[in-house]
Each structure stands twice: as C-alpha cells, then as structure tokens.
Amino acid sequence: MDILANLSLGFGIALSPYTLMLAVVGCFIGTIVGALPGLGPSNGVAIMIPLTFSLGLDAVAALVLLTAIYYGAMYGGRISSILLNIPGDEPALMTTLDGYPMAKAGRAGDALVISGFASFVGAFLATIGLMVLAPLLSRVAYQFGPAEYFALYLLAFSTLGGISSNNQAKAALASCIGLMIAMIGLDPNSGLPRMTGGNLHLYDGIDFLVAIVGLFAVSEIFFFIESHGKSSAVGIKVDKVKVPWAEIWSTRWTMLRSSGLGFFAGVLPGAGASLGSFMTYMMEKSIAGEKGGFGTGVAKGVAAPEAGNNAAAGGALVPMLTLGVPGSGTTAVLLAVLVTLNITPGPMLFTERPEVVWGLIASLLIANFVLLAMNVPMVKIFVKILSVPPALLLPGVTMVSFVGIYSLTGSYFDLLLVVAFGVLGYVLRKLDIPTVPVILGILLGHQMEKQLRDAMVLSDGEWQYLFSSGISTGLIIASILGFIAPIFLRRILTKPQAVSD
Amino acid sequence: MSQLSDRIFGLAVILVALVYIASAMQIQVSFLSDPVGSKAFPIGVASVAIICAVVMILRPDEEPEWPELWTVFSIIISIVLLIGYSYALKPLGFIIPTAIVAGALSYQITPKPKFAVLSGLGLSLGLFVLFKFILDLGLIGFPKGWFV
What we know:
The complex is a heterodimer. Chain A is mostly helical. Chain A has one domain. Chain A is built from 21 helices and two strands. Chain A has a two-stranded antiparallel sheet. The mean pLDDT of chain B is 87. Chains A and B meet through helix 7, helix 8, helix 18, helix 19 and helix 20 of A and helix 1, helix 2, helix 3, helix 4 and helix 5 of B.
C-alpha cells in the first residue's frame, strides 16, 4: 500500500518531539484565535506567518505550525458562537443557530462537547479524504498545461467571489483589485518595471503578506473602534462539563453525512468552509423536518455545521496542495506560506517533496487528537479567554502584526502599506465587498498572467488554444456557470444573517 | 439618495482604473516580446474592473451603516497614529512607540484612561520580552545610545 508507506514516512517526521511540540502549540494558539470574536482562521494564520518566518522555521515545521493553527481556529470558532451568540469566525455562524439556544437553556457544556466531537469527526474524516483524494488528483494535475491552469485560476476567481458575496459585481471587482495590485512590480517576462509610478519601493511588487495582514488583521481594529468594543457581551457561564454520550451517539449519522458534504464543499475551488457549514445545516434541517426542532437548540443542529465546516477545512487543502489553487480564504493564506517557503504546490510536490505533504498530513491527524483533548476536557480554559477585553486584545493584535511584518522586511514602507491595506479592508468590508478575492488576486495574479502568456507563446497567439483540451474547456464553462449561477440561486438561498436575540 | 456609497466607490474605481490603463499604455516594451506582451493583462483586468464599477453605479446596494462623525474622527486619529508608528519604529526603538500607540488604540476602543495606560505599558513590555527573549527576534528596545 502506497498510502501506508507514505504515512509512515509522514509520522516519522511528525512524531519528532520538535514537530509534535509545534503542532500542540499551534492547536492551542489556533483554538484561542478561533474563539476570540473578530479573529478567525484567516487573520489568525495571517498574523502568525511573519513571525514564523522570523523564527527561521524550516518548511515542514512552519507548515505544521500554521495548519495546526488553522485547524485549531476551525474548532475554536464554535466557542463564542455558543456562549456569546457571536460567531468567532464566519464558518461558525451556523453554529449560533442551535448552539446559543442550547446555552441559554443551561446546556452550554453539552453544546460545547457535542460540537467538539462533531468537529473532530469532520476534521478526521476530511484528513483521511485528503490522504486518499490528493494523490489521485495530483495525477490528473500532471496533464495541466498553461491553458488548463489559466482556466483553473479563472474558475477559482469566479466561484470564490460568487459564493462569498451577495453581489457578483462586487465580488468580481474585488478579484480585479487584487489582480491590479499583483501587476505592480517587475514584469516577469521582460524584467521591466510596471505600474510602479517610479517608486523604487514598489519595484519588488507588493508582498502579499503585507496585504493579508493589513486586510485581515489591521482593518479589524477600525471595526472595534467603531463599535467601541461593545460586541463582547457578557456571556453564559459553563458550569460542569460532562460528556453526553447518548446524545453524541444519536447524532452519528448527522456527523457522517455532514462530514461528507462538507468535505465536498471544501474541495470545490473557492467554496470553502462557510458554504460547507451552511449546506450541511440546511441538509440536516430538511432531513429532520419540522419535528427536528432545528433552531431551538438541538444536538443535531450543533453537530451538523461543526462537522461540516471542519470537514470543509480539510477538503480545502486538496486543491491547494495538488493544484496550487486555494479553496478558501485561509487556504489562500496558507498558499502564501508555501510560496514564501519556496515550495510550489502542484502535482510535483507529491513526488519531489513527499516529506512536506505526508509530514503535514500526519501532523494534521495528530493535531486532531490534540484538539479533541483540548476542546472537550479543557474547554473551560478557552471559555476564560473570551473575557479578555477588546481594549487590550485588539491593540495587542495590531502590534503583533506590525512587529511581524517589520521583523520580516525591516522596512517602514511595508508598514505604511499595512496601514493602507487596513484602511482599504475597512472600506471594502463596509461596502460588503469581499476581501478574500483581493488576496487571491494578489497571490495568483503573477501565475495567472504567466500561464496566459505561456499559452499564447505555445499557440503563437491563437486564443482558441485556451479551448484546445477537454479539461480547459470544461473549467472555463464551469467558471462561467459558477459565476452566473449564484445570481439565480440567490433568490432561493439567501445568505444567512446572524440570528438576532 | 440613500445608495450613494456604492456609487461614489464605483466612480472612484473607474477613475483609478483609467489611470491604471493609461499608465499601462506607457509600459516599456522590450524588443523580445511574447504575443501577449506586458500591457494586455493589466489593461484587460482594469477594463473588467470598470465594467464591475459601472454595474455598481447602476445597481447599488443598500447604504451601509457608516459610523457617526465623532467615530470617523477617532478612526482617522488611529490611522495617523499607525502611520506615525511605522515611521517611529526604527529610530525610536520598540518600547516607547508601542506603549504610546497601544495605549491610544486601547483608549479609542474603550475610553477608560487608567486601563488604556496600563494596557499600553503592559503590551509594550510584555510583547518586547516575548519577541526579544523568547522568540529571539532582532528588535531594538530603545533609541540607540540610551543605555550603552
């Protein structure tokens, strides 16, 4: 068995004490980041990236730490959803629907334990899915040429924007802003500067880490200044944490179904965890019917979205590792990590750097058990962290972001850019323009242009070349459908808004 | 009009995109060029941005809730502080600028003077110890020549 041999290679790396420690530290930080309202997986990972590099971790270690934070944040998001009725991050939004009513009924501990188990099942199955599906997909990816990659990037932009926003024009605009920013710097083909306005600082282009930290982390402080930190309402106390085995067992099919669907949603480029938790909640609600009592605080209503979003988190790693196209905002951030570490994701990664891929997968399996231990018996520690006042937390986050970028580049100009991106992020989010496509544009812009130009070099300028293979034609059609479909679907499926009390 | 924000933003995007296209036209082309060249992709992307902006102007969404004037003012103050921080970090070292900016930001979020001063000092010293001695990053604590 190939998989077993590879896994033993992976565990050989992951079980070294140093890597193991990084995974545990990552899980701990991640759960905190996820639990804190206003800090989600993408900004959590974003803040940590510059620090990781300044610490000089090698590729495997850095990836293990950051993906452990990613998984941890997906677990932690549910804590504030259940206790405060404020989702710790966007995918945890659906968990508020049944989690908060359960907490109000005095069953906060049960809700936390059930959702913790559901997160574990979802994440665990998704990691196994990743193990099986990723090598298969990487074989398909060998057939990808420039035309196919260009079509794939197109698909990522059209679906990512399409689902994460309420307005297609705004989503597409966000992608364009990102792509326009990516063009700044030296032209990769000719080596001549473009769009720099003669500013020497811009010749190297704009580092996407700067954009990520600005858009995700610094923009947050402006929102908290606006709300004067009011969002940290006094929550519900957790008394005793017992494990309601019977109830967990009663949700077994819900967890399995939701994991499957969530994983599928995660694998689709651009769909991501928010869609995963939304789809699974809706599916379970319709299966349970009127009698299921969804929305009044039932176990299945907590288990479904949590299994779904954690499974989607694992699924989103599949296209990121095999094709280099992220399936969600956070995997876009992780892609930035890979690129910065000089690792090119794609089919070659599996043959050339197997220790990176399988070390990562093995660490994820271990991280899952660590997270289960942290999130069920030790959940009270994280509940305490929710009471950190925003007036201390947000300045801290901002300072950590600045120091991270500063210690990485040592340039005041990059810090100014961080502030500029923070302001841009604030305005965009106010206008309901999604920020994830901006990041994706900055990240993939160079590659997208390069693939297009390579394709045209191959075909000597014949644009029909883009439709020359079945794969690329299919991807282009899918991206057009993926862009148009939400316009019609939106009448049926409205994006869920946070429940008002 | 209650949908002004989207329209203003759309207009701003169109202006920026036009400037962008204009400067893309100016890109120097090397003599060894590929069929697409350096100009086509930026111009194409900016054109799509213009189309999106036109759609935003024609079909704007509902107006978002903008903060009141006083809050806008305190957001602007914090932006200025952060810009100042960017310039100050290198010459003045980590501890003093961080204490001032962190304290000020804390005060902007929750206006409790005592708490703000304490979180400014605490964050500055705590983060310095964390970064310098635990994570071993090369930070400079104070301006050069103070404690040599």
